[in-house]
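Ticket #4471: complex job returned nothing on first submit. Input attached below:
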Amino acid sequence: MQYILVFSLCALAIGWARPRKAFSAAVLFVSLLSIFWLQPLSPVRNLDFWLPLASIGMTCFVWAVTYPGEGRPVKQILPGLILILCVILGIALTRYLEPLCCLTQSRPPTIEVILVASASILLGSAAVFFVLPARPAFLWITIAILVGLFVVLKSEPIVIKLSGWLRGIMGQSQTLAAPTDLAWLGISFLTFRLLHVVRDRQSGRLPAYSLIDFAAYALFFPAVISGPIDRSQHFMSEMEKARASQTDVGWQNVTKKNTLGGARRILIGSFKKIVLADSLAFFALNAQNAEQSTSTFWTWVLLLAFALRIYLDFSGYTDIALGAALLMGITLPENFDQPYFKQNITAFWNSWHITLAQWFRSYVFYPFTRFLRTKHGFLPAWLVILSGQALTMSLIGLWHGITWNFLIWGLWHALGLFVQNRWSEWVRVRLPMGSISPQAQMLLKTGGWAMTFLFVSLGWVWFSMPTPELALRVFSRLFGISG
Amino acid sequence: MMNDTSDLNRQSTKAKTVEKAQPTGHPPDGEGVSIQRVLLKTALLFLIVNLLFALFYPMDTLGKASLYNRLFPGRTRLPYGDNPDKAYNLSLFNLEAMFASHEIASGKKPADEFRVILIGDSSTWGYLLHSNDTLSSQLNNLQARHPDGRRIRFYNLGYPVMSLAKDLLILSRALRYEPDLIVWLVTLESFPSDKQLFSPLLQNNPEAMAELIEQYKLNLRMDNLEDHREVWERSLFKARRPLADLLRLQFYGPLWAATGIDQEIPATYTPRQEDLEPDEGFHDLKPPHLAAGDLALDVLAAGVSMSAPTPVVIINEPIFISQGVNSDIRYNFYYPRWAYDDYRRILAAHANQNQWRYYDFWDRISNAEFTNTAVHLSPQGSRDLAGLVLSAVLGTVQTTRKP
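Support reply: We reran it on our side without changes. The output follows.
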């Protein structure tokens, strides 16, 4: 609650203070503070400082690598470097200012160490920006690094090993290494924003941004925890609009409208998240209660509670993010559109975590199916669709964590999408919309909705359980097979 | 074609409806809406709601509004939980909510039921026991019948913390549920005067306890209870925690229904202490003798008096009798021998003098059946005690049988 309040006030201040030229700088300033403040405490010493710093480093590096065009104007990088350095050093200095200590969860490392690390990151990025020529190979290396890092962080055994190694460096017991040690704030969303930028740079669609603008996009504080994954082009146009509206004659009306709209969205989001989702969390299906439940009926109740909870929690977060952004005049893309009311699984995926689905559609599904069609033209259409959906949905599953259950969850949905695709083709040919009575249409719609909701809800069993064995036990319980 | 036309007509009608639905006199967002007015109205509303809440203070009414015994089965013991996330249970202090969640509140007492309620401390409640293994469950498993044919049904109204005053408060509410017999399990640790008002349940129900103290002229000091009667203390804002507890109790209902779990029972625990300190002290009392005035016998008497004409069976519950170091000085962690022996003597004499139905089972359970404290029993210990309690109940039933 305090986070929502503080960030809303910050956003409100930026919206009303009309910093005009310093708009991006103000957004970045709060964003930088927020990633340090929100980063959870790690048992590995000082990691709650180093992980946000690494996020900043990744952002600067990707910006430098992807900067398009031949010219390398100093004004594009210098203000950003100065601002970032000042914020990092300011946070580092709180170590010595008792009343202010600390914005980070634990006391920051010593100033000398931070200076060296920050200088390395920032000077390294500057070197890449000024010295290294823009070569396609660097972009592929960047993609490999980002994907590699993502895979490492999503794979539990590797995280444990990495945590053990970090603990060793810090002189801590390696035997206590746990997967939660490397809970890196917003890394999934940051990586995907950066990957999108690199891919757009590869395809020549990326405009030139200043470091400040770029970092404000990548680390944008309302969206840092749970998205949405905005595209840089859209975000920059929104920032431009917000900046421009601050110089308008009628700026007060616009800002007031944004304030009321943003506040309403934040209130709705808070209600969904804090009141509804957190209440459902008490009895939503989880690994603990799944093993203990002895009743078929009540296991269904727990599963439905999970289905509602995950939606309300995530869409509540999104509402808060969109509301906070709107307080500054920035409209972020929607992430949800009443997904549980959809009448088929394709419509569900067009309305559930929309920005992630779009990301995968743009960067995985379309390129992959295009590749299959052009290079393997002999493949039947249904096989191309099945392969594309299987690959895309598997990756969406694994995006949540590299486990068998997330993979199965992805494949579950791929299968659903494929069957629905074939079914709708079959129906389209045999039963044109005009040929069936309104009652039959209503029945089809209601049946479609019920089937979709049931299918998605059952899919959450894979998602919510840590192992396939436990998920199968839950299915057995749900269908009254065991006891 | 016909369909197409009717579609167009429908669309046109829909468009008109949408147009009509636009509030013509209402300005669009942001225009004509004063942020100050919004804030002022919010503050005023907050104040009014808080004052109204303080005025009516509907906590009891809200406590009664329970989903237990309606959507979820009633709990077999009063809600209490050290670790809610694992126990699917929590400690709250709204007596109405506590009782409303209990199976005893499931409806009218069946005609063929002889209702026995058990009150007492954590031992009666069943600490470290699954709800199927508590004393009341073990008693129900024995499927005893009253001589007149009614089945004897036992209800667990025990509640952790050793205090007779806490038992009395629970008893005062339990009497609404028409018990035919009350079994009150006690132990010396429930008797010292300084223990009586220590229970958080009493601290959070000061008015109810004050009434009992007043009504039965109990020798308890009222200033030990917090005063909750200020307007601020009764506001909605101040009541947010107990209100959240009410909701949380309901939210744990599905998990109680799904799992039957209402307590986290760890696989291992520290067993009751066998070797003891050479300490002869008991609270602020010193040997050689305990006096009747040192014990809250007046609270016990109030319970018996309050229950009349329903008979009360008082049972001195079993304790662990140490054989370890310094066991010649103390029976166990709680009791020095001199104090406990005197207590048994005083209680027996007092019961005899007042013609109470009193049973002393202090040494009737094997030492192996005590778990983490000198009064908590294992499932087998609970089963053994159930046999003893049932014989006491049947003995009482025989003597109080209606013609």
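The radius of gyration of chain A is 24 Å. Closing as resolved unless it happens again.
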